[in-house]
Structures are given as structure tokens and as C-alpha cells.
Amino acid sequence: MTTGPDRPVALVTGASRGIGKAIARHLARAGCDVAIAARTRHEGEEREHSSTVAASNTRPLPGSLDSTATEVEAEGGRALSVYLDLLDRTSLGSAVATVLERWGRIDILVNNGRYVGPGHMDQLLDTPVELLDRHLEANVMAAVILTKLVLPQMVDRGSGIVINLASSSGTMDPPRPAGSGGWGLGYGMSKGALHRLAGMVAVELRDWGIRAYNLSPGFVATERIAIDMAEFGFDASVGAPPDVVGAVAAWLVTSPDAAERNGEWIEAQEVCAALGLLPGWPAPTA
Question: Which of 190, 238, 267, 271 is least surrounded by Cβ atoms within 10 Å, i.e. has the fewest?
Fold first, then answer.
């Protein structure tokens, strides 16, 4: 990676906590300046994060763009915090325009953010249609819009990388109904639609130096999983740390071997373990 003013610039959505924060930190460690985007700018902000229409939960979750910026800078990268709401298309354009105005380029786009709110853990008959629309808007259309916004300047330079956070929920049926270990239709069908984007980008733009990947994290122990999801049948204690996904994202950006996998589905936990990208993980078995 280049140092100084020509360091690559990454834009990471959903970067206030969890996987997005880990990816931002690892990209900074790998030599990038990182624009971090999310709704939660400061610690203690209240957002609706209940996964079901049956209840509301707005108590603050740990994490913010402020804390992510501190971690990015501790790794040697510049951090630029930008507000971004996946359900507000105007904010998508504003976020990209801000990064391009301030730093002049976006070399890496990480579409990590997703819809958080009711409908995620509700069964079909209990899910209002407008919540399915929100899943599709935040999980699919926002990523498409952001990708279209950053691609022209990538093509002009002859290089660029798009990483979309994938999910097996978009490739398989849940083992149990939503609310008892499974997931709702909105999440599954929106992730399934998102999975088509990386391959299309790779096929259409590989000759212009553009690479794209579906990065599947597997089950990861994020803050929200630990705080919110036990009641829905998910045990955070068996999840991988978010740094696993961060380490693989950095590998996709920096390794010549990753270029050979343009357009592919990348299983983060498998790649991280096979290449030893995160020292101490997985823990040795007795």
C-alpha cells in the first residue's frame, strides 16, 4: 500500500460498530485512509433496533463513528466520518460527494451496512409489506446506488474494489422459523438479491481494473448479536470475532492472490483460518 497523500481511500458503510468497525480498522492497518459511514455519529444516540414488530427497543447500543474514527487513526489511517442512512437516498449521494470532495477518490467501497429494525425476525404473516420494502431498499438498492456512484471514478483510474457483505440467509432456507433460530423473509430475499451485484460488476468491468466480491462473514459475535439476538435463538458466545471479517477484507484489498478470485463468494471464516490471517484465531484445539 502507498503511504502519504496517495494512500488508497476506502468507504465503509455501517461502520459505527460490529463488522463495519472491524473492517475499517483492518483497512487502516493495511494502509488505507477510511471514510466511515453510518447513522450513529456519537456514543449514546438512540435508534430503533428491535428486530420485531411486537416491541420497540431504542436503548443506545455501544459504538459510534466517533469511536471507530479513533480506532482507524490509532492504526495510522486518516478517518472521515460521514452520515449515511441506507433508507435515505439523498444521504447516499451526499456521503459519496463529501468523501470525493475531501479526499478526491474512493478506491474501495465496502457495502456492509444493512437494514436494522422490525421485520428482521418476524414471520411472513406478521410482517407488513412496507417492512419488506425497507429491507430491499437498505440491503439492495442502497448498495447498488453507492456502487454506481463510486464506479465512474474507479473506471477513470483503471482500478477499484467493491466488497459486498453477503449472508447464507440469501442462499438457503432458515433451519427454524423467524424468532426461534431462523430469520425473516425480508432479510433472506434482500441478501439473495444483493448477491447478484458483485458478479455483474466483475463481468462487466474486469477489463477496466475493477474487482468485486461477496464476502460472507458467517455467524459473528457483534455487539448487537450479544445484546439483542439471544431472545431469537442466537448465541453470541459461539460466534467468530468481527476481526475475522476485517482481516479477510484487508486481504482482499492487499493480496495479489485475491485478484484471482474476482467476482467470487468468499467465506471469511474459512479464508481467515486457512491463511492464518488473525493470530490466535481459531484457538488451538486440545
Answer: 238
Sheet of strand 108-111, all strands in order from the earlier edge strand to the far edge: 79-83, 33-38, 9-13, 108-111, 160-165, 210-216, 265-267
Cell of residue 21, nine digits: 468497525
Q: What is the 8-class DSSP label of residue 135?
A: H
The answer to whether 126 and 26 have CB atoms below 8 angstroms apart is: no
Work out whether the CA dihedral 153, 158, 159, 162 comes out positive or negative.
positive
Q: Which residues of 242-276 are buried (b: 16+ CB within 10 A; e: fewer)?
A: bbbbbbbbbbbbbeeebeeebebebbbbebbeeee
The domains of the chain, with CATH numbers, are: 4-275 (3.40.50.720)
What are the tens digits of pLDDT across the range 3-19? Answer: 446 799 999 999 999 99
Residue 187 catalytic?
A: yes
Q: Choosing from 83, 115, 187, 213, which is the catalytic residue?
A: 187
